[in-house]
């Protein structure tokens, strides 16, 4: 599923010049970082007890983190083009 999202993004951005595609990738990456920061900042007090008292959340957090790392690496590759 993740590869199909990335291939769709590649197809969508293929017709745009490399300078603009880098800028678009940078904006998307900054938007994801800002949205994640706002989410953590607003829900930090609730996140700690949930992680402590519900052991099943740790694997979910790891998989979300892995997804965000892969997304960040993908966008960073497109920024360097």
Can you walk me through this structure?
The model has no long low-confidence stretch (mean pLDDT 84). The protein is mostly helical and 81 residues long. The radius of gyration is 16 Å and the shape is elongated. Helix content is 89%, strand content 0%. The chain has three helices and no strands. The relative contact order is 0.14. The protein has one domain (2-80). It has helices at residues 2-13, 18-53, 57-80. The longest helix has 36 residues, at 18-53.
What would a concise description of this structure say?
The protein has 81 residues and is mainly alpha-helical.
Q: Outline, from the CA principal axes?
A: elongated
Number of domains: 1
Percent of residues in β-strands: under 5%
- Rg, alpha carbons: 16 Å
Q: Which key features would you list for this structure?
A:
about 0% strand, single chain, mainly alpha, about 80 residues, 3 helices
Give the SSE layout.
Elements: H1 2-13, H2 18-53, H3 57-80
